[in-house]
Amino acid sequence: MIKKLVILFFVQFFLIYPSFSMEKETTFNKEMFEKAQSEGKIVVVSSWIKYCSSCASQMEVLNKAKNEGKLMDVKFDNIEYFSFDVTNREIADLLKVKFQTTLLIYKDNKEVYRSLGETTEDLIYEALKKVI
After folding, report:
1. Structural domain harbouring 48
2. Cβ-based burial of 39 (10 A; exposed 0-12, middle 13-18, buried ≥19)
3. Does residue 17 fall inside a structural domain?
4. How far apart are the first and last CA of the chain?
5. CA quadruple 77, 80, 21, 64: dihedral, nearest 10
6. Are 49 and 85 in contact (CB under 8 A)?
């Protein structure tokens, strides 16, 4: 009986909730961040922590938009996307981020949008569309 419960748990955890097992890596680099801003790009930054499912969901939405090259009807070619582990205090302090699943959008070298815990594709896309 216990063996069945353990198997059921793992099936549910890794198949039904795949975002828990999503590979996360820090892509934020201060020099690349500043370069993207100096080139006039819109810069999107998200924070995450290792076992955070909402972080993974947010990253999936942003990676999907980046990899498909569009946000519904908006091209992603002038947008640079970075992510970082919120436990990296150097980056977190630089961006004034205290919590995981923080989403930041910069335009013209200024922060123009900040949200905490937003994982809904439509709302993230709407925030980006407003900035573009």
Report:
1. 24-131
2. exposed
3. no
4. 55
5. -20
6. yes
| Residues ≥6 apart with Cβ < 8 Å to 94 | 30
pLDDT (0 to 100) of residue 22: 55
Return the pLDDT at 49. Answer: 92
Phi-psi region of 56 (alpha: psi -120 to 50; beta: other; left: phi over 0): alpha
**What is the β-pairing status of strands 74-75 and 70-71?**
antiparallel
The pLDDT value given to residue 129: 84
Residue 11 lies in a domain: no
Domain total in the chain:
1
Task: With CA atoms as reference, report the closest residue to 51 among 108, 105, 93, 100.
Answer: 100
pTM metric for this prediction: 0.78
- Give the mean pLDDT per block of 10 residues along the chain (132 residues): 46 42 80 95 93 90 77 69 95 96 95 94 88 82
pLDDT of residue 13: 41
How many Å apart are CA 62 and CA 104, to the nearest integer? 12
Residue 106 in domain: yes
Q: What local confidence, expressed as pLDDT, does residue 73 receive?
A: 60
Q: State the CATH number of the domain containing residue 82.
A: 3.40.30.10
